[in-house]
# Entry
Amino acid sequence: MSLAFCGNENNSVAYNVDGGVLNNGCFLDALNVVPHVFLLFITFPILFIGWGSQSSKVHIHHSTWLHFPGHNLRWLLTFVLLFILVCEIAEGIVSDGFSQSLHLHLYMPAGLAFMAGITSIIYYHNIETSNFPKLLLALLIYWVLAFIMKTIKFAKYTEHGIGPRQLRYCITGLLVLLYGLLLAVEINVILGRRYVCFADPPEVKPPEDLQDLGVRFLQPFVNLLSKATYWWMNTFITSAHRRPIDLKVIGKLPIAMRALTNYIKLRKAFDDQKRPQDTAPQGPKLIWQALRKAFGRPLILSITFRFLADLLGFAGPLCISGIVHHISKDNRTIQQPMTLLGIYFISSKEFLENAYVLAVLLFLALLLQRTFLQASYYVAIETGINLRGAIQTKIYNKIMRLCTSNMSMGELTVAQICNLVAIDTNQLMWFFFLCPNLWAMPVQIIVGVILLYYLLGISALIGATVIAVLAPVQYFVATKLSQTQKSTLEYSSERLKKTNELLRGIKLLKLYAWEHIFCDSVEETRSKELTSLKAFALYSSISSHSVLPLILQTFVVHVHISEDADLSPAVAFASLSLFHILVTPLFLLSSVVRSTVKALVSVQKLSEFFSSDEIGDEQEPRVMLTPGSSNHNQNRYQAVPLKVVNRKRPPRDDWNNYSSQGDHESDGPSQDMDQDICIKISSGYFTWTDGPPTLSNVDIKIPIGKLTMIVGQVGCGKSSLLLAALGEMQKVSGTVTWNRSVTSSVFCLPTDRDAAADGDIRKRGAVAYASQKPWLLNATLVENITFEMPMIKPRYKAVIEACSLQPDIDILPQGDQTEIGERGIILSGGQKQRISVARALYQQTNLVFLDDPFSALDIHLSDHLMQDGILKLLREEKRTVVLVTHKLQYLLHADWIIAMKDGTIQTEGTLKDIQNSEPELFEQWKTLMHRQDQEFETETVAASMTDLERKNLRRAMYSREAARTEEDEEEESVESDDDDNMSQVMRQRATIPWRSCGIYLSSAGLLLLTVLLLSQLLKHSLMVAIDYWLAHWTSHVIRAKTDAIARNCTIVQYCGFSHSWYLSVFSVLCCLGIILCLATSVAVEWTGLKVAKELHHDLLNKIILAPMRLFETTPLGSILNRFSTDTNTIDQHIPTTLECLSRSTLLCVSALGVISYVTPVFLIALLPLAVTCYFIQKYFRCLHLSSCCPLPSNFQLIFLSRCTVEGLTTIRALRYEPRFRQRLLQFTDANNIASLFLTAANRWLEVRMEYIGACVVLVAAVASITNSLYNQLSTGLVGLGLTYALMVSNYMNWMVRNLADMEVQLGSVKRINGLLKTEPENYEGLLTVSQVPDGWPRQGEIKIQNLSVRYDATLKPVLKNVNAHISPGQKVGICGRTGSGKSSFSLAFFRMVDMFEGRIVIDDIDIAKLPLQTLRSRLSIILQDPILFSGTIRFNLDPEMKATDEMLWEALDIAQLKPVVKSLPGGLDAAVTEGGENFSQGQRQLFCLARAFVRKSSILIMDEATASIDMATESILQKVVMTAFADRTVVIIAHRVHTILNADLVIVMKRGIILEYDRPEALLDKEDSVFTSFVRADK
# Structure
């Protein structure tokens, strides 16, 4: 057949021009070639020459990206134009199929137009990126020409009576419209940018984000195509593949997405809601409305995209139906098309009946549908992420203003607040992500049912009924699921709380042999949690969505056949893929419902949190000014948001304004205040709760520049007084006045109005405050001391010196750059205390509050701190110091003393005043001070407890190093989630952790594994079998029909064809399928649970029995993470991921198998697709891993919130709220940008996978159509192949996603396995429990023979060849300098250390032969750090529940606690909060003493147990111990020698050997004894 532009039939009308040239159809087409050729000739040279020299111009830095006016509209119109041109080409080819010769003019012009369209947009993009608008003139000319040519063609068609019935007429009309619109867009650009015809083109700059090179997240700025396909991510993903992404390199967020921007948006929405007072919604409703107002618009966009995607989704089934239908009726019976103007025209009906056309349309519909769907997801997630950032910022701002009493009274716990930040904000984010589904699902279901009705008639309604019946079941299951989820959460948080307490008190538990009591309690909670998880597993397998289509198919097929309708492959497979589409919304329904429920709960929680008490509520009136005067004031302060304002000279006029409202008597600074007084409280009543006031009738003044001391017994309200002055307590009545000239800090920042009330801020400046319980940031030691202040070397040195921190710093692995706090090195109490005091000293504020800074320090350090720190450093700087202390010997240095008793002020004045006015009190003090021999002159340098801490630390560091070297390389990442540096995780990332997978699966056991594998394989084979049977059956129906027509039977059945045999096989297969689906689902979940149970049980038992070294060398947070995040991953995530992974892989394999079976040609196309797919997933997995390693920024957020809550008073005292807010914004943005990149990466992957999927469909369709038309492939199989091809992209997506998830989640197994390798302590003894005498040890006689002890086989001995003999009932004191081995001595009795030589014999039994549990349960010890557990007082004193009430009361009486406990509601059953926070430090120590007394063991060891107790109580205790334990052996480890002066025997140690060993009197008589030198050391 020769080629000719107009065809070459002999009598061709095509060349006939009698009626004028323009009336010839072929000439019209030729005319239309002109504009396209013009454009191609003009632009190609410009593109290749102009841009060829700098071909990288397209990748130029994004700061030049500038969109011309009408940018998005142009891209949209171009896409539509290209689509219509494709239709025109197809129409030409189809209509050409009817003639003998080829008519090029039918499709060549359209082909050229297509090329020109693509060229135009590339050309435009290049001009835009180089910002050179003059070159757009070429496009202007092109649009004009094209518009004119098409209009002429359209006019001629109309003139010849060709109408809308002909497809080409419609196409031409549309093209006229499109070219017209594009011309308008071009003219608009000229008007906008004035680059031609105008004198002064405006200077245009790119958006300011893009001028900042740090912004790498370009989604908002790129063009439409790049937005839709995430093309801009390519560079990012290739670089991620080359080397792991460092979060620091990710760059910044664009301004519109930053947390601050979104927070301001949200706050504005909240304020708008609150405006109309009468109608303002309350509580959760308010939050919802504000969220809708702030973030509603992008959601609407997302929902629109979703609708479009869902509607396009129905193209699949319709096209399949059309294709199969077309193949099954022979397609050569179509009537001849019309011939007009000498050319052929076809109608749209004929056009759409062509199978190949349908295949191409299906391909395009799929591309569009996937693009819209991903766009919808992306917009929804981005909105969710922005919303999360805004809410987190709002929560944090609220934390900054929280009332501290909420915390101490247990109304709000730290954990609750961290959950708000970490979990509830995420719930809201997910809700926003799933939100479009709420609207899209009903539409999808309705349209689906209508289409089914159109295909199947009445039987479709049966299917719909089944769906309707199952929906409530689904809903019921979903509610059940959310209930079980909730109870699981409750149990797991309870389990975590218990685990946390167990780990924090592990040393005490081991020493008292109580590990198993606590372990059982954790296990008990764990079993409840597992029961709840089992229920969860069961419900989720019921709601499993693979069952539904089977049930539906069964019902519908039965009804359909009984209706006697025809069962053709076209109908069968179209309905099959419709079922697949309908299942998705039903499956999603449960998760959407669940997510909605969770979001409602979270908002409820947030609403409660936002309405909780704020600090300083009662000072509000000052800010509630009348509208007239308030505005300019507030604005004046908001205008200078973060400039440094010097408050040395107070803004007098503002104060007058503020106080002018007649609240002069409120606690504003009175102008006539005495200049020597810094703070004055008059008749103040303060309370923590609504009960009676904690402090009553307080009248005090604190002089400027002087040292004021506050003294009093344990629990009399000393700390509360400081907090009351700082405004942290609720004031019932009275006034607190601050002297402005002093308190204005060296510098102070006004904050935004989210800080406390403006007036309140100006009421006092910054105060450096060191709380009683030291508070540290998760930062380096230096950062903890300088605490946001600039580093001044000499000052820093002085402070370090004053707090004697240098020796400690020298021990730390990285010196003062070592991380401390929760994630870092574990420090002892004294070290923490000194760091916290150092911070207060370093701050340059005029006022310093120190709350009992000596409680955890020994006498030597206390003196040093007092002399160098307080008396020297602070005095020299003329700073006002308020010091709370129990150390009465320092009263001599005080300029002013405030004595407190039971929440009131007993007296105040100088020491002289008190001597005169309150002689008894003075005498009492004096006797207490005399106990240290003539006003503390003889206070001793008994080796300091600090040195002991240093030694512990050194030991920990040392054993850490040792531990490092022992462990093999593979476990390097045990602490990966505690490292910000994630490089080592990355190095291991590219391979799937098979080893962890092996560990995981081997925990399940062989039986379960085989069941699992077999059931999965069987299930998938059955699924394929069912569909294959359907194909086989329907093909037979068609064959039977053609036979019937041949034999002239009217009804198929009469011709010997019966459905019943096919139907029964089909039903059996379906039933089996349903059963297997449930079975596999359950099998997977049970396997998962079994593994979870095993791993947690092993982990807990390993940890409980692990030697103390593990806890000294591993950060607590790291161990806790194994129990929280990792266990949670293993419980809930790995089983589902595993199930999804196996399911999607098998589905994918079966789908590709079926397609290849139907059309073997497909295998050729499969190879390149598979290669592409492999590379895409490889790149993606790298990126997914680098983003999924638990984001450090996310941990930082939680740590920061926790830190802030715990250190609220310190931060507020220093007025550092703005700095912490800034920090939060940084973390939130870091977290959000990581999430956004991850989202974009997910979309990048999915779009590519979906496009590959669309190609699979196209190839499969074309191949099977050709195969069927030429090789007689049965129509049923064509339908089967296409149905499967449609599903491939989904399966591939899930496969890659799950593979990536699995990889990340198996990290948890690996980390837990790392801990499981620890060697336990040796609990077995040579004797059994029954061989140990019942009351052993009765006498309490101790013989130590040639004892040598070390902490670990790799370390040096800490005790060398020690010999000693302690008779029954003796009181023995052990003293010595640091590192002399005193504490190791006490630990040796409990075998907490490695006794590698010698032995300890107690009452004639060598303790090495005893079972550990027995040994430890028969001795008592009191440790330095008081540890209480949450529960009741009874539980804290006697967890084994062996003692009677009388015994408990007796112990409390001895420990001076009886009156305290009597006054509590419930007495012995009164509650103790976590860590004993509802008792003061001193009271906690007393409880620990009482606990030891309850034991009644005949040997008691006291390891400096009286550190945080005031002297009066301490002296009573000393006496009590001597009397109550008169008949028992007591070993006292002393850090202060005076505590052992009246012991029966003193042992002085040095470097692990005994130096002196005698009665104290005998030692003191020897002038040259070391003991004497200790006692004399301070003279």
